[in-house]
Specification:
- With 121 residues, the chain is mainly alpha-helical.
- The chain has one helix at residues 2-120.
- The longest helix is centred in the middle third of the chain and has 119 residues, at 2-120.
């Protein structure tokens, strides 16, 4: 009876090992396919990364250009603001004087006309 049990154990172990070998073989094929996919991805990704780096370098150069333009526009706006303030002061001061003179003359003429009207009565 001991020999039969040993034979059953040996056959069971052999079936277990064959099953384990089949699983290992399928795992090997799965890993091989995965490696091929990763190699394809690597082959396609590296040129794309190079193109992306070139694009980013170009964008950075353009941003430097835009930054320079914006600085120039800021300087121009500052100069225009100064010129507007100077022009406003230049025009406003004589205009105020002229209007004040006109108002004063009108009051004086109005006062003179009122006195003349009082003198006629």
């Amino acid at each position: 009876m001991g020999g039969l049990a040993a034979l059953i154990c040996a056959a069971s172990f052999a079936l277990f090992m064959l099953s384990l070998a089949a699983v290992a073989w399928k795992l090997y094929h799965t890993m091989a396919v995965t490696n091929r996919i990763l190699d394809d991805i690597r082959r396609e990704t590296l040129p794309l990364l190079g193109k992306l780096q070139t694009t980013m370098d170009h964008v950075n150069r353009e941003m430097e250009y835009v930054d320079g333009v914006l600085e120039a526009v800021g300087g121009l706006a500052s100069r225009l603001d100064s010129m507007t303030a100077a022009l406003q002061q230049l025009v406003t001061s004589p205009l105020v004087r002229f209007l004040s003179l006109g108002i004063g003359a009108r009051r004086a003429l109005g006062e003179r006309a009122r006195r003349e009207d009082e003198g006629k009565d």
